[in-house]
Amino acid sequence: MCGIVGYVGDQPAAPFLIEGLKSLEYRGYDSAGIAVLGAKGATVVRAVGRIRELEAKLPKRLSGRAGIGHTRWATHGPATEANAHPHRSEDGRISVVHNGIIDNAVILRTELQDAGVTLRSDTDTEVVAHLVARSTAPTLEGAVLDALGKITGTYALAVMDADRPDRIVVARNGSPLILGVGEKETLVASDAAALVRHTSQVVHLDDGELATVTAGGFRTFDRNARDTGRRAEEIDIAATEWELTGHQHYMLKEILEQPEKAAAVIRAGSTTGSRPPG
Ligand code: GLU
What we know:
The protein is of the alpha+beta class.
């Protein structure tokens, strides 16, 4: 289970996606990719290995203002470019990134192939792109709900539709997913590390919850399409918590910061302890 990022706003999406994926690198991954929606539909770039290899493959012009990105830790199929996310529907309209495992993927893959769909990866995730594309629901939200009705397993999902470049639809079940609310932009991430440089206003989605994110904000709803009315809340986490801050790697950072962290915990404890009752 690895990393997801997403961006819809008034700025090009790619810089945030790449920076966000870099801030999730500490979780480990085997491949990475992004999809950006522009005037001519989705541009998808994927690479095995580090984010900087993905970055090196990006076209010079990638100005779309909605996009999703992923670092993959393979569970279904080896670490190849074809298995890296985002995965797409056959017509390229739907792009999907996914953390987690779709338990009934083997059955769904067979059903899709029997229906004439050509699968282009070994992954469980690809079925979601096809299921969303094949839904007859009139909205992207409805199509995602239709697809979720067919899958079992764990997921954090972010779905884009080239026909609806103003939005990303996300869903959570057993794998974390957070929205970050900025000015004229809304962000998506599987881990606050990717958001803290941009906003302190976040929404932690619950299992069974979905959201539509647009440049102007977000709307949360449940599996029955009922609004869950979530509001953003303030998180108090410094960006440096996730930065290497000069250390060679994260384990070293953790070890060397121990005295400072222990002192902070003791300070917090003594402040609480000395507080007058009531
Ligand atoms: N099960 C998916 C795959 O193997 C997603 C793995 C992940 O969470 O990175 O492609």
